[in-house]
Amino acid sequence: MTAVTATETVAATADIRKRGRLVFAATIIVLCAWVLAPIYLLVVNALSSPDQVNAFPKSFVPGFETDSIAFFMGFAGVAKALFNSILVACITMALSIGLGAPAGYALSRFEFRGKGVFRIMVLMTRAFPLPLLALPLAVLFIRTGLDDTALGLALVHTTLALPFAVLITFSLFSGIPVELEEAAWTLGCTRVQAFRKVVLPLVLPGIAASAVFAFVISWNEVFAAAVLTIENRTLTAFLLQNLDVSPLHLKFAGGAVLVVPALIFIFAVRKYLFAMWGIANR
Amino acid sequence: MAEISIRNVAKQFGDFTALHSVDLTVADREFMVLLGASGCGKTTLLRIIAGLETPSQGEVWIGGRRVDHLPPRQRGIAMVFQNYAVFPHLTVFENIAFGLRMQKLPQAEIDRRVTRTAELMHIGQLLKRYSGQLSGGQRQRVAVARALAMEPDVILMDEPLSNLDALLRLEMRAELKGVLAESKTTTIYVTHDQVEAMSLADRIAVMDKGLIVQAERPIEVYRNPAARFVGSFIGNPPMNFLPARKADNGSWRVAGITFKGPKAEREEIAFAIRPEDLSHAESGLPAEVRVVEPLGPHVLVTCDVEGHLFRAVLESDIVLSRGDIVKLAPTPDRIRWFDPETEQSLQVH
Questions:
Q1: Are residues A19 and A126 in the same domain?
Q2: Quick one: A117 and A167 in the same domain?
Q3: What's the CA angle centered on B233, arms B232 and B234, to 5 degrees?
Q4: Beta partners for residue B326, in sequence order
Q5: What are phi and psi of B85, to 5 degrees?
Q6: What is the value of ipTM here, to two decimals?
Q7: How far is B79 from chain A (nearest CA, A)?
Q8: Are residues A210 and A89 in the same domain?
């Protein structure tokens, strides 16, 4: 009797476990599909000829036609917008690492009054809705002559990217034992030399990852770009302005040109971003 | 010449006082061990000497030069860290050469010194490897070689052996002693391991609660503890303590037995004896046996003397069992006395 009950319980537990695994797998599939399906469709359509894009039923296999992309790239203003995007993103990258890495270093190495508050404040900057800031910023920029310049926009993007730069570099520097620096000091280094000869070589890959992340934040940002630039639009702002009146295949091509570089960059530095977010290094 | 002199050094971390006014002089070429439990301030003192911490007050002199305002690189020291601090992005060769390159020595001299110290530490075959490809013991050797290659006046070591396993620690201990004696530098070595301290030191500075309690030769620290803390910290098993009540003309009664003792204006003081200075005899302190542990050469007997824990190391041929009453006679010239309030040693006149 008891033996039977025991086997039944075991069977029931196994059954529940199996169902649990099923639900788990299904959730993962749905989540992946949620992200991957639009990207897939985007790429398929971007790589198809205009006729294929407009045809019905839709094909799920790309036609491997570069007409759309080629036409899009030749579209008036695209090259300039692309250049602007890269310029703004590069300035953002330089500014956020230039300002963020020292802050991250200070956070990881020094005890100072208000350190905890400072860390919260760094995160809090992300809580300000950009639309709220956009109008006063636009006014301020027009007054100072920063409106419609790459530098002006890069400054706004830097405020968006800086918290991440600070937190990523903070975790990078915290991963370097302070004894390594101390050993360098006792071996004849000044603080600066110890940083350059010991800390920098060890954090350089992570700093590069953090820089790429700042680049992508700027690359993807559309709101500030649309509000603060008129002549010198970045690619996102340019697409927002032009694509709603463009034919379908152009929209897909534009979307792909925007999304794919960001995806590649993020994929390249995923290890460091995971580390920052506390997910195991994979 | 590199005599180290620490004068009236104190260190506060916020409200916590890590060091109260410490004075210590280490002679040229002396091997000084700072010994104490964790949190006693020994590492803080070492880091102040190295220049990695600034003292809240006091002066540090190395080789007749006041150094407490100088950064570590200008103090003529080399340091070995507890976690080795071998640079992971450099080969063993470049690690050992690191300080020499900072001094801009000619390449031939760098090669000579790296090869010599690497041979000395038996890591000559590892020079091309990175720290990730080394075992803990090998990393430790690299860290020591890196310090020796600097040919410093002073070597500071912060628990260098504590991350090694027991067997390796024993081996490295003997090796370190030989190498450092050869190198003729002044050494300050921090440890919480009393055996390490006893075996390495020319002098041991025992630290407790931010103070140096006693700084003497190891045998002196062991035989004549300056304070009750030293007796209870050094020795395994530690010293036994029993209360002693005042009796007539300078003698004291301990567990019903009268001993000649110090002249003290107190009703009660502490009687102390090391476990190995007791023997089984006709008359002595009455002890009730609690635990008997045969250790091979001796038997460790844990007893109860008038409600106090009392340990004795006795000849291994003795047969005892739990509940027996034994008489333990202390060797007279090994008895020590301590003041119960100041905890300082009381001299017998």
A1: no
A2: yes
A3: 100
A4: B287
A5: 50, 45
A6: 0.86
A7: 7
A8: yes
Asked if B144 and B121 count as a contact pair (C-beta separation under 8 A), the reply is yes
Task: Tell me how far apart the alpha carbons of residues A234 and A215 are, in angstroms, rounded to a whole number.
Answer: 13
Q: Are residues A44 and A97 in the same domain?
A: no
Taking CA atoms, what residue in A is nearest to B157? A183
Query: Tell me: the pLDDT tens digits for A97-124?
Result: 999 999 999 999 988 888 889 888 888 8
A–B CB contacts, 8 A cutoff, strictly below: 56
Angle between helices B92-102 and B136-149 (to 10 degrees): 20
Peptide bond into A62 cis (omega under 30): no
pTM comes to 0.80
- Closest CB to B85: pick one of A183, A189, A201: A183
Task: Please judge whether A185 and B73 are an interchain contact, meaning their C-beta atoms are less than 8 angstroms apart.
Answer: yes
Q: Which two tokens stand for residue A279?
A: 């997910």
Q: pLDDT tens digits for B291-312?
A: 999 988 899 999 999 899 999 9
Domains in chain B, CATH or no CATH each: 4-231 (3.40.50.300), 237-346 (2.40.50.140)
CB B228 within 8 A of CB B214: no
Q: What is the pLDDT of residue B248?
A: 80
Residues of B in contact with A189 (CB under 8 A): 73, 102
Residues A224 and A114 in one domain: yes
Which tokens belong to A187? 């071996």
**CA–CA distance from B265 to each of A61, B168, B238, B246, B258 (Å)?**
102, 51, 27, 9, 18
H-type helices in A47-145, by residue range?
50-54, 67-74, 78-109, 115-124, 130-144
* CB spacing of B102 vs A187 below 8 angstroms: yes
Q: Does B102 touch chain A (CB under 8 A)?
A: yes
pLDDT averaged over chain A?
A: 84
Q: Contact A183/B81, CB-based, under 8 Å?
A: yes
Q: What is the pLDDT of residues A177-236, one digit of tens each?
A: 999 999 999 999 999 999 999 999 999 888 988 898 899 999 988 888 888 888 888 888
The answer to whether the beta carbons of residues B291 and B275 sit under 8 Å apart is: no
User: Cα angle vertex B327, ends B326, B333, to 5°?
Assistant: 140
pLDDT of residue A281: 41
Report if residue A68 sits inside a domain. no
A201 min Cα distance to partner chain B (Å): 7
A49 touches A63 (CB < 8 A): yes
Show the domain range for A28: 2-54
Q: Which residues pair with B310 in a beta bridge?
A: B303
